[in-house]
Every structure is written in C-alpha cells, then in structure tokens.
From TrEMBL:
Transmembrane segments: 20-41, 73-93, 105-127, 139-160
Main localization category: membrane
Residues of the DUF6576 domain: 253-287
Annotated organism of origin: Fodinibius salipaludis
Protein name, entry field: Rhomboid family intramembrane serine protease
Single Gene Ontology MF annotation: serine-type endopeptidase activity
SUPFAM superfamilies on file: Rhomboid-like (SSF144091)
Length: 288
C-alpha cells in the first residue's frame, strides 16, 4: 500500500487549492507570521505595523489613504481570528471559485471587504471610531455567494446535524446582527455590510453582468509591468456570455463547439460541464 508523506500531502493539498484562494490564504498566513514574530521581538513595532495598515472608519483617512480598505483584510488579531476566516474561506469559497472563476471570485471577495469597510464609515458615529482588521467582511461576502449558489447544500457543524447552507449563513448573519454594537471589539457592522455587498454583487452577476471584467485592467497592467502582456485578437461579442472572460482561451479551432461550452458555463458554471466537455474545453484552450 502506498503511503504518502505528510509534507507531500500538505504540498499537494496547497497546490490543489483554487488560484485566488491559494493567494489570499498565503498572504494572510505570511502576514500573520510576520505580525507574530514582530510582536515577540518588539511589541511596539508590531503595533506600528498594524496601525499603519488597519482601516480607520474616518472619511479623511479613507480618502487620503485608500489602500487601508484593502490591507486591513490581511491583518488579524489572533490565531483563532485567522483560523476562523481562512477555514470558512476554504470550506465555502472553493466551490464559489470553481463555479465562477478566479477573477469573479476576487471581485466578490475584495468587493465585500472594501464595501464592508466603507460602510463602517457611515456607521462609525453611532458604533464608534474603532480600527478594523481581518478578512471577515470579505469572507461573509463569499459565504453569502455560496448560499446563493448552493442554498440546499448540507454543511456539517460540530454538535449539529447537517444544516442547509442558506440556514447556516443566515444564522451567522443573524448572530452578528444581534451582537451589533456589543463591546467585544468585533466589527459586526463590517461583517453585515460585507454580506450585503456580496449579495448585491451576486444579484448583479445573475442579471448577466460580467464581474470579472473589473479585474482584467489590473491583470493587464500587471502583465505590462512584467513585459509579458499580449493583446488578444478581437472577435464578435456574444452579449449572453457574460462570464466567458473568466475562462482562459488562447485560440479557438472550432468556434461553434467552443461557444456552446462557454454558453453552458455562463448558465451553470464550470461544474455544470460533463467530463467530456471539460476535456474538450481543456484541449481547445491549449491549442495555438
């Protein structure tokens, strides 16, 4: 019987993660390790580091230091805080990314996180001007997306029987709503706003709008900086295929068959394809 080593199993599991989740988890863990090491050697410098990248719900700071609306998502207040966010992102986010693609997933994640932070500016006069760190708002947006894509999917929780995804997510949101304004230091409003933004983005996507197009300019800029950007040949646009840009296509050799597969992805997601269709898409995507 073949016995794989623990290290190889971890490595295989890590590289088996969808691309966007793998990058998000890697950055979060790396930053947390840096925070921990820094706090051991110099708590003062650790506090300076967190204060430099946390989000403060003040419109002046949000206006003149807009990067904080992104960087706060990669800071965490403790190991349990990080573990909670990354496990939910892994458990529920994997199916979301595999269904919608890495670009659309990234828009959902960062859109919910940024939206949650900005909404906190409105709520701060009532709830307090407290700094915010953590990916919880973004993760709540992904959780809502999962519940909308797979509402009846059973989720196993400790000490509970299998519960449908829509009820689990709704229950977590309800708990945050009940604890809104509590003195436990948790930015509940960011969680709720992140969930709300995730819902709105999913509804916007369901109406036929391509969320992934918001990522393409950033991706193209990155490739230009690397000197590897190649402009794709233009071809007639099919207005009904709103999620096609999340599928990497180099060159089509059988346009009609490819369009049929991409149309099915736009309606049912990648997981809706048969094994034969997935293989055909893979072959067409790798032809020059």
């Amino acid at each position: 019987m073949y016995n794989d080593s623990f290290g190889n199993s971890v490595k295989r599991g890590y590289w088996g993660l969808p691309a966007a989740i793998r990058v998000i988890v890697t950055i979060n863990v790396a930053v947390f390790i840096f925070q921990t090491v820094l706090s051991i050697f110099s708590p003062a410098y650790s506090n300076l580091f967190v204060n430099a990248f946390a989000f403060y719900p003040e419109w002046q700071m949000a206006l003149f230091q807009p990067w904080r609306a992104v960087t706060y998502m990669f800071l965490h207040g403790g190991a349990f805080h990080l573990l909670f966010n990354m496990l939910w992102l892994w458990w529920l986010g994997r199916s979301v990314e595999e269904s919608m693609g890495p670009r659309t997933f990234s828009v959902l994640f960062f859109g919910a996180g940024i939206g949650g932070a900005l909404f906190n500016i409105i709520a701060a006069p009532v709830l307090g001007f407290n700094p915010v760190i953590g990916a919880s708002g973004a993760v709540y947006g992904i959780m809502v997306a999962f519940a909308m894509l797979y509402p009846t999917m059973p989720i196993m929780l400790i000490f509970f029987p299998p519960i449908q995804a829509r009820y689990v997510v709704a229950g977590l949101i309800a708990i945050d709503a009940l604890l809104l304004g509590s003195s436990d230091g948790t930015a509940r409003i960011v969680h709720l706003a992140g969930a709300g933004v995730g819902y709105l983005l999913m509804k916007y996507h369901a109406q036929g709008n391509d969320l992934s197009r918001w990522v393409l300019p950033i991706e193209q800029l990155w490739y230009r900086l690397k000197g590897t950007y190649q402009k794709k040949k233009s071809r007639p646009k099919n207005d009904n295929m709103y999620s096609v840009s999340d599928v990497e296509i180099v060159e089509e050799t059988d346009q009609s068959e490819l369009d049929a597969i991409l149309e099915k992805i736009s309606q049912k997601g990648y997981d809706g394809l048969t094994d034969e269709e997935k293989q055909k898409l893979f072959e067409l995507s790798n032809k020059n």
